[in-house]
Amino acid sequence: MLARKSIIPEEFGLPGLVSRMPRKPVFRDRVNKARFIAKNGSCNLAHKNIREQGRFLQDVFTTLVDLKWRFTLVIFTTTFVSSWLLFAMSWWLVAFAHGDLDPRQRNGTHCVTDVKSFTSAFLFSIEVQVTIGFGGRMITEQCPAAITVLILQNIVGLIINAVMLGCIFMKTAQSNRRAETLIFSRHAVIAVRNNRLCFMIRIGDLRKSMIIGATVRLQVVKKTTMPEGEVIPIHQIDVQTESAVASNSLFLLAPLIICHVIDKSSPLYDLSAMELQCSDLEVIVILEGVVETTGITTQARTSYVSEEIQWGHRFVPIVTEEEGVYSVDYSKFGNTVKVATPLCSARELDEKPSILIQTLQKSELSHQNSLRKRNSMRRNNSMRKGTSGSLRRNNSSMVSPKVQFFTPSDGVQSLNAVT
Predict the structure, then answer these.
(1) Same domain, yes or no: 60 and 141
(2) CB within 10 Å: which end of the chain, N or C, has fewer?
(3) How far, in whole angstroms, is CA 372 from its chain's centroid?
């Protein structure tokens, strides 16, 4: 049996109308990719399949400094104990060769007095290397071999002390410790400044000791395909900032806003607000300078992915003057406020400057309308308060007054109040 045709033509049915309706472009959420630089400044990079491991042993000092504390302390303890045991064996052999360990030779000439066993030789080795003399064991001038071992142990002990103590000092005074007090705003913003779209971040220093010759560098890292077909997974593009003048040094006394003008040379020139959220770029910020107190060069790093860039926002001011002193409120360090910003790219804004004018006019109109609404609401509230007050006065006037009747009786006047 054939299916009965519908009275409504297929092209005017619901499926046909839906298929002919214009669809908006759907932007898929990008897959969460690994960050090249973490928010705390650590490099998210793993080195694998390194065949030439011996290169790390050629620079032992740097390798020891780069190790974690637990490995450094283990190496520190093992090195000293091993040197003490090695020279303890040397002292025991010297005593054995000279016959000092023979019980029958009590009153004879010894190389080292009171070295009768390996334990006493080990104690004497510790006393020699750490320059502690307890007065019981001492070297004599009768044995040249003992003098030679004494000189060697002193030289080796000085070298071990210099390397190990220097390693401990460098690990405690590393430059990244100073970078812990160099802070960056949690989010970056894009807004209009001087009629140009600008990418802005805020940096600050929590310590009173300054960073001398501070410089800020910005880089955009993204996956790029060259015209020849070459794919560069980590393409680093330098970004210029407004402070890129002369030596590019900053006077980082108070928190500063670092601004990058999105112009033709910027990698953000062709990105609109919607395209920025769907892109996989990462903006790296590098702050370098010399620590004023120690003279060590330090570096602080952070990065911003597309989700951490707020379009149409601006940082709130945090520096105020209070009784002749400038005060910085770090509780508002990362706070932003919405401002009128075109959603188009910087290229479209340069080609059509009227977009910026229309956006500013719309924001001004909306601001005026909001002010009018507030004023009208205030007037209505004041009128309501006035009417409610007049009604209360009218109601109070409508209340019947109290009438007093005086009735004389027996020469005494009694008062009866009737309401």
Answers:
(1) yes
(2) N
(3) 43
The count of structural domains within the chain is: 2
Q: Tokens standing for 334? A: 């990362």
- How many helices (H) and strands (E) are present in the chain, helices listed first? 10, 15
pTM of the full structure: 0.65
Q: Are 153 and 128 in contact (CB under 8 A)?
A: yes
Note down the domain range covering 219. Answer: 178-357
Q: Where are the beta strands (DSSP E) in 162-225?
A: 182-184, 188-193, 196-205, 211-225
Q: Which of 345, 367, 366 is nearest to 356 (CA)?
A: 345
Residues 234 and 352 in one domain: yes
Q: Is residue 120 part of a domain?
A: yes
Residue 315 backbone dihedrals phi, psi, to 5 degrees: -75, 140
**d(C-alpha 376, C-alpha 373), whole Å:** 5
Q: Which residues in 248-266 are b (16+ Cβ under 10 Å) and which e?
A: eebebeebbbbbbbbeeeb
Low-confidence ranges of the chain (pLDDT < 50): 1-12, 14-15, 17-31, 244-246, 398-419
CB 270 within 8 A of CB 347: yes
In 3-state terms the chain splits into helix, strand, coil percentages (rounded to 5) of 40, 25, 35
pLDDT tens digits, 316-360: 999 888 888 888 899 999 999 998 888 888 888 888 878 777 776
